[in-house]
Amino acid sequence: METPADEGFGLDPFIDWVKKEGVAVAKDFAVNMHKAETKAWPRFDINGAVVQLTGRGDNVSIFLLDIPPGGKMSPQRHIYEEVCFVLEGHGSTEITLHDGRKHSFEWGPNSLFALPLNASHRHFNASGRERALIAVNNNIPIIFNLFHNENFIFNNPVDFPDRVGKDSYFAGEGDFIARKKGRPIWETNFVPDLSKLELMPWRERGGGSANIFFTLADGTMHAHTSEMPVGTYKKGHRHGPDAHVCFVTGSGFSLLWYEGDQDFIRVDWDHGVVFSPPDMMFHQHLNTGKVPARYVATWLGSQKYPMTDARRKMGGKVDVDVKDGGNQIEYADQDPRIHMMYLQELARNGAESKMGEFIDESKYRN
Description:
The protein contains 5 helices and 25 strands. It has 366 residues and is mainly beta. The strands form 5 sheets. Strands 2, 12, 13, 15, 16, 17, 19, 22 and 24 form a 9-stranded mixed β-sheet that branches. Strands 1, 3, 4, 5, 6, 9, 11 and 14 form an 8-stranded mixed β-sheet that branches.
C-alpha cells in the first residue's frame, strides 16, 4: 500500500506528545502565568498546562503545575532537566536519590530550584486554602525530539549521582564563583526567595543593572536574574533562541524589534508574565514602577555547559556594542522613540526618571 510522499516526515515528537497528554496549552507571544487556564493532567495527578510562547526556540518549554490546596503531585522521574520558579503558594519538595537518601526543602513565592537529573521527586502544597503554582522551565522538547520515546524519558533507570551536589545546596546555601565582571555564578540547587537574593553590579548592561548567573543541580539549563533600579532601563540587546524571561518584581514593559523594523512589539509585564525573544531579535526591558524590577531568564546552555559553539561565543558579546561586533545597542545609538515612550509611561505612573546619569534627557523635555 502506497503512502503519501510527505506522510511521516517533518514530525515534532514533543508537540505530538503534548497533544496526546491532553493537557491545557497556553499559546501567545507573552503569557501571564497566573491567569493561564489549567486542567487535569493525569501524568502528575494535579492540574497543569504547557506554555508555548510564539518566540520560543526548539529546546525549551514551560510546564505549569497547579497543585490544589492540601494536594500533592505524584512521584516523578525523568531525564529532562527542570528549573522551577514558584509563582504562588507555599509548599515543599521531597527528592529521593539513587542511594535512597532523601532531601526535602520548603518553598514559597519566588523560590527558584532545580532537581537533580532523573531523581525521584514530588511537590506538596502546604496550604489547605490556596493553590500552589509552579512554572517548570525544562528542556523536554529537545529530549523528546532526540529520542522520541516516552518510556526512555520517564522510565529510565540510569542514575546521575554527579548531579546531586552538596547537601547544603538543598538548604539555600551555595558557592559563589567570581568570574569576570558581569558574570558571577551562584552554584546551588535552591534559592529560597529570588526577589531578595543579593546581586552583583553589571554596569555594562546600563541603568545601574545588577545580575547573577546560576549553576543549578550541575545542569545544562541556564538561569540568571537581573534587576533594574527604579526609574531606569537596560540597554537593548539580542541573543540566540530559547530564552524565557519571567518577571519577578516590579512592573514595566519590554520592546522587541529586528534590525530595520519600523515598529516595536511591546510586552507589558509584572509578576508572572513570561515571554521569549525570538532568535537574534533586539529587546529592551524598561522599569516604569516605583520599586526595583527583577526578572529571571532561562534557556538551554548554561555558563558551565554552553552546549553549542554559538552559545559559547554569544556569552561574551551580550554587553559589547554592536559597532564592535557585539550584540548590545548603546544608549547614544538607540531609537529616540524609546526614551520618549519611557518618560511618558513614567509620567502616567507618577514616577521619575533616573536615566539622566546615563543619557542626555534635555532634548526630551519641553
